Amino acid sequence: MIALTVNGTSRQVDVAPEMPLLWALRETLELTGTKYGCGMALCGACTVHVDGVPTRACVTPVSAVAGKRVTTIEGLSDKTDHPVQRAWMELDVPQCGFCQSGQLMSAAALLAQNKTPTDQDIDQAMAGNICRCGTYQRIRAAIHRAAALARGGA
Amino acid sequence: MARARGRLSRRTLIKGGLAFGTGLVVGFRLPLTEGLLAEAQGAGVFAPNQWLRIDRDGVVTIINSVPEMGQGSMTTMPMIVADELDADWDRIRVEQAPTNPSLYANPVTGNQSYGGSRGVRDHLGPLRKAGAAARQMLREAAAREWGVPLDEVTTEPGVVVHRATGRRLLYGQLVDRAQTLPVPQNPPLKTKDEFRYIGKARPRIDVPEKVNGRAVYGMDVRLPGMLVASIEKCPVVAGGKVKSFDATAAKGVRGVKHAVQVTSGVAVVADTFWAALQGRKALKVEWDEGPLGRLSSAGIAREHETAAGQPGLVARNDGDTAAALTAGAKTLEAVYQVPYLEHACMEAMNATAHVTADACTVWVPTQNPGGSREVAARLTGLPVDRVTVNTTLLGGGFGRRGQTDYVVDAVETAKAIGGGPVKVMWTREDDLTHGFYRPSTYNVFRAALDGQGKPTAWFTRVAGAGLLRQRGSVPAGQVDGTSMAGLRDLPYDIPNVRIEWVDKDVGVPIGFWRSVGSSQNGFIVESFVDELAHLAGQDPYEYRRALLGKSPRHKAVLELVATKAGWGSPLPAGHGRGIAVCFSYGSYAAHVAEVSVAEDGTVRVTRVVSAIDCGIAVNPDQVKAQMEGGFIYALTATLYGKITVDKGRVEQTNFHTYPMLRIAEAPVVETHILHSGQPPGGLGEPGVPTVAPAVCNAIFAATGKRIRRLPIDREALRRA
């Protein structure tokens, strides 16, 4: 039994300790917003926050997050109103949308550290997230927009 | 969240056929069955055709038949119905169509299968008519209620209005009366200036659920008692068979319940995907690798080259090309090569199946619900009407999901374990190494110019496999049109043109891939015409323009892109500008790309301008989104895309060996829509074919080096 905090709630999972966090989230805790894309930390679709740090859940053993705080896309906000979610909706960023949970979690982690990211900051923070539909230019614009929203811009 | 998006019924994605049953199943061009009509009427629902229903609360449910794979069909298709219906967008729900080709087959192809950028272009007419018929009936119902002539009755969104008296009735109030009226077969349609939704950017309905994790893709399907499976497939790309297997160790893995043989390999079935993967690793399988076990990319290249030395089937023959080639003032020969490509949908292939004695239910992210249903019926021996296929959201399609191999995996696995339900999930490695690849081709070009530099002869011979030919739907000795797209319809005014195709299939499974033939031929044609312009010493844009006199839509889109890009304006040293134009899938597209090439050969696209004439732009922001996405998809292939095989095994197994373009390399794509008012064209694919040639032509402009083989070899561009 491994204890962890997921989206603010204490949870216990009875799985092999080496099972990647991704599968504990998706299959044991039924939080399917976090996606499987590659299993090798190459695409970023599985990005979650562990104690606030963007983390690839597909290569993180669940034992490594015992006692830690995990935030998934489902826990990013209660009402789909985190600044990145608002900006993503405003600019209609997603196409197929499969990678977007990971994109949003990487972007939210960036903005938590950096209130006014430059294009270069965005390139660096988002380098691990692949979007096969090619929504990158809207992602970039939406991160700038989210930064403005977070600063109180309308 | 207060924005007017309409609402996506998530419940139906999971409940599938169960939730779809009531009230809507009345064919537009099909005779009503009494049972269905009674059901619709009894439910207090106005359902004049299979595309919409309105309940007494005024909620309009619109059925979208085109699977949502990112192109925005769940928003764009309903916009068409809602416009002619004059529905209130805030009172709209959208449901994905059930699998029932008699109601939801593509009206042009006759199959409930979607590819070829056929969403808007094949449905605009029928969906307008569907919405207009319902609006006409609601007006009629109100006119009768008020005892006024029909032509005095008009509508505002969700309301029928009698202007003279100021009387108003909500659509929901007219449901019971409207459903007793006959369905008009030729209702009046709106004029262009009456459109309320068509032509105006509208936020996507599916976006809120795609930013909060609630959107349900095939991979996310969960059912009571469901198991999850991973299939060990033969390491050879296709054609391998299980000789024998030993699952003793696999079955000892915690959580593993079964290990069963299916056509594509050995399915390890467990209570979680992770357990199934561990079981799969412990499996011992002996394979009969089949005929492709000796295939290598070097051998394929040699076979293609040899084939290209032989005469091919004639796809087009204008004038006397052989004679004109010898008579030219200047001649040019070149060989172009393109590789196999995999789609790399972000969501790897998967499907979930539940088989019982008298029914089969499948949940699947598919472009091909109709084909999925047929496959499941064949495998279970059930009649098709006992098979329910629920189309989930698709994590990418790009043509890959027109295939049904993953449905076979799921249904066979379910059958082998006593019925399931079971979800079969592919790994990224399975996905890249067992695909249906965009064909690789070897292309020979010859051309002659007259004294003024004008081309007098054009010869192209393509050697490679035809994807319709490979699956037997084009007979031997006939040209496979999918291999000739973007080539046989060469738009340039040249008196002698000969296009040949050498049918050379080495056995690698091939399939549709975002613009397929046009992605290959757009590159080779638009690169070679650029070569001719330079040979003639003329500007590549003006050279094309002068040759497009008989192709006014090509010319118009080319002129638009050149103007918007500032063609001819100065660029910094080390930068170059390239242009290309192509017709595909009913639309005309052109690109201008600006690139810089670093000393180490790294290509960076610094600016992109695109232009598209898709006839009518129903949702202009999504037209732009497709041009943006198509550019990135194509640039990824141009810079990185290459699938190779060794001993029959695909060598690219994950994103480290099959790289994808990332955000730092992604330019802003500026899109200009040319509103030609012509019939609607496609959108998902037309933004792809002109990208590689625009970029490679820009590289030539910057460096003087001509790229004749994709992907771009950075080493060949290295200066230091």
Would you summarize the structure shown here?
By secondary structure, chain A is of the alpha+beta class. Chain A contains five helices and five strands; from the N terminus they run E-E-H-E-E-E-H-H-H-H.
Keywords:
heterodimer; A: 154 residues; alpha+beta; five-stranded mixed beta sheet; globular; B: 720 residues; seven-stranded mixed beta sheet; 31% helix
Kindly describe this structure.
- The complex is a heterodimer of chains A (154) and B (720).
- With 154 residues, chain A is an alpha+beta fold.
- In chain A, 34% of the residues lie in helices and 14% in strands.
- In chain A, strands 2-1-5-3-4 form a 5-stranded mixed β-sheet, sandwiched between helices.
- In chain A, a hairpin with a 2-residue loop joins strand 3 and strand 4 (53-56).
- The longest helix of chain A has 15 residues, at 136-150.
- The termini of chain A are far apart.
- Chain B is α+β, with helices and mostly antiparallel strands and 720 residues long.
- Chain B has 23 helices and 28 strands.
- In chain B, the strands form 7 sheets. Chain B has a 7-stranded mixed β-sheet. In chain B, strands 1-5-4-3-2 form a 5-stranded mixed β-sheet. Chain B has a 5-stranded mixed β-sheet with strand order 14-22-21-20-15, sandwiched between helices.
- The radius of gyration of chain B is 27 Å and the shape is globular.
- At the A-B interface, helix 1, helix 2, helix 3, helix 4 and helix 5 of A face helix 8 and helix 21 of B.
Spatial order of the strands forming the largest sheet of chain B:
11-12-9-19-16-17-18
Q: Treating each run of at least 4 consecutive H or I residues as one helix, how many helices of chain B?
A: 23
Q: Topology as H/E string of chain A?
A: EEHEEEHHHH
Mean pLDDT of chain A: 97
Shape of chain B: globular
Tell me the helix content of chain A. 25-40%
Beta-sheet strand percentage of chain A? 5-15%
Helical fraction of chain B equals: 25-40%
Q: How many strand segments of chain B?
A: 28
> Span between N and C termini of chain B?
54 Å
